[in-house]
């Protein structure tokens, strides 16, 4: 898969395979300790920004860099909240790839090789080596913690001027979330698998406040794998809400379907 399709799916590489804990911090109506109460406060504060909109259209500029190449592109992202995400990638004004992501299915095509993919998250998860779902992709783009923080047993500490949540329940997959203390907007999250020499770090340098929600001004991703390092920067240039958006996805004639084993 070449760079355009890789950039489409960069937003999908957002979690490491691990069993989901069943303990929910917010289910404890009376926290057992002050530490539990602080964790509950952070989680409640993070979800207080309810993302009150039906649709959002985001025009972005992105930079992609790996061990072998770098590229600047533009991408249009359209989200019908909790229903579908559309991504169109352009290079020098020419559309090079499109993707349509729904809770049940992922579709993309890219013009360099004339190929397309249609499949579920299970196939992509096996291929990328990560556990994927629609909600994680949407969370990444909207500036929300990748995981559902209501699941898991977290510990809260302060590091610098940020509040830090860690989940020590799985030593094989280490997850850490950093929040600014005013509105509990996420500033950084790290997912590390030391035994596999893999990690993902997502940084949110800043947010813009709209009537409908706080949204990222920029997203920085750094993925480390045995084959090398990948950096992706996505800058939000303009944002509009609650328009009647179109999601124009159709595979051009003559493209070859690819499968993922």
Write the layout of secondary structure elements.
Blueprint: H1 3-10, H2 34-46, E1 55-65, E2 70-80, E3 84-91, E4 94-101, E5 106-110, E6 115-119, H3 121-128, H4 134-142, E7 155-159, E8 162-167, E9 174-179, E10 186-193, E11 198-203, E12 207-209, E13 214-216, E14 218-225, E15 228-241, E16 256-257
Parallel strand pairs: 6-16
Antiparallel strand pairs: 1-2, 1-15, 2-3, 3-4, 4-5, 5-6, 7-8, 8-9, 9-10, 10-11, 11-14, 12-13, 14-15
Task: Give a brief rundown of this model.
With 261 residues, the chain is mainly β. The chain contains 4 helices and 16 strands. The strands form 2 sheets. Strands 7-8-9-10-11-14-15-1-2-3-4-5-6-16 form a 14-stranded mixed β-sheet, covered by helices on one side. A two-stranded antiparallel ribbon has the order 12-13.
Q: What would the principal axes of the Cα set say about the shape?
A: globular
Question: What's the CATH H-level homologous superfamily?
Answer: Lipoprotein localisation LolA/LolB/LppX
Taking all Cα atoms into account, the compactness measure Rg is 19 Å
User: Percent helix among the residues?
Assistant: 10-25%
The major beta sheet can be summarized as: 14 strands, mixed
Task: State the CATH class.
Answer: Mainly Beta
Q: How many strands appear in the DSSP assignment?
A: 16
| Class computed from helices, strands and strand pairing | mainly beta
User: How far from one another are the termini?
Assistant: 14 Å
Spatial ordering of strands, largest sheet = 7-8-9-10-11-14-15-1-2-3-4-5-6-16
Question: What share of residues are in beta strands?
Answer: 35-45%
Query: How many domains, as an integer?
Result: 1
Uncertain runs are 1-8, 11-31
CATH architecture: Clam
Number of helix segments? 4
Order of helices and strands: HHEEEEEEHHEEEEEEEEEE
Reported by name, the CATH topology is outer membrane lipoprotein receptor (LolB), chain A
**Mean of pLDDT:** 84
